[in-house]
Amino acid sequence: MTADHTPDADDAQAPRHRAIRSFVLRAGRTTEAQSRALATLGPRWIVPFADRVPDWSAVFGREAPRVLEIGFGMGDATAKIAAARPEIDFIGVEVHPPGVGALLQRIDEARLSNLRIVQFDAVQVLRQMIAPRSLHGLHIYFPDPWPKKRHHKRRLIQPEFVQLATSRLQPGGYLHCATDWQPYAEHMLQVLRAEPGLVNTAADYAPRPDWRPVSKFERRGLKLGHGVWDLMFTAL
């Protein structure tokens, strides 16, 4: 799905190793409505991946705080958050066509003007399309926990990624993660606490902010007694 990125100045000094990615491609059926949305609405709301920082103010038609979300799934929470916070511009990053098509439908139905999509690997989007210290916030909700020990190295929340993410947050900007897998929550807390550019807003886990809606899957899990852990850190 993605090609090797063109290194920036910082990357050129980094040792060569297997690049982290924000996703693993999985099978999924794209409905006719989603395919139609990709064809007809995509040109309006999808920002093509580029190896340079776009003029985001021109993209949105205004100057406003920007929040990026990694892996929005089918886009239900993303659309609700954008609708509830019209003063903020949102960039949703997702690679899977069914989810992108579904969010395009939600954007059209709700007439959202403060939401754009980049259909590409979020790690490369952060590196090349987001300027350092430019984001007001970064959302990472329910990323794949990779529960098997031999797969832990595939988890998105790792020191290298957190360092990159932190570098894109403006001073006082926030990084908000949520997971329903307790071992991953503990791993996230450990990694985020170790990043010198971040400060925890809570003693450990944070309360869910009112603007993060509860998804149907999360609600189902809560009814079954499953836990959900939010982590909220701010950038120095």
TrEMBL record:
Involved pathway(s): tRNA modification; N(7)-methylguanine-tRNA biosynthesis
List of residues binding S-adenosyl-L-methionine: E69, E94, D121, D144
InterPro entries tied to this protein: SAM-dependent_MTases_sf, tRNA_(Gua-N-7)_MeTrfase_Trmb, tRNA_methyltr_TrmB_bact
Keywords: Methyltransferase, S-adenosyl-L-methionine, Transferase, tRNA processing
Record-listed E.C. numbers: 2.1.1.33
UniProt-listed Pfam families: Methyltransf_4 (PF02390)
UniProt keyword Plastid present: no
Any coiled-coil regions, as ranges: none
GO molecular function: tRNA (guanine(46)-N7)-methyltransferase activity
Swiss-Prot/TrEMBL catalytic activity: guanosine(46) in tRNA + S-adenosyl-L-methionine = N(7)-methylguanosine(46) in tRNA + S-adenosyl-L-homocysteine
GO CC entries: tRNA methyltransferase complex
Gene3D superfamilies registered for this protein in UniProt: Vaccinia Virus protein VP39 (3.40.50.150)
SUPFAM superfamilies: S-adenosyl-L-methionine-dependent methyltransferases
Binding site for substrate: K148, D180
Top-level class of the enzyme under EC nomenclature: transferase
Stored PANTHER family: 3-DEOXY-D-MANNO-OCTULOSONIC-ACID TRANSFERASE/TRNA GUANINE-N 7 - -METHYLTRANSFERASE, PENTACOTRIPEPTIDE-REPEAT REGION OF PRORP DOMAIN-CONTAINING PROTEIN
Function: Catalyzes the formation of N(7)-methylguanine at position 46 (m7G46) in tRNA.
UniProt family annotation: Belongs to the class I-like SAM-binding methyltransferase superfamily. TrmB family.
Protein name according to UniProt: tRNA (guanine-N(7)-)-methyltransferase
Source organism (scientific name): Thiomonas bhubaneswarensis
Gene: trmB
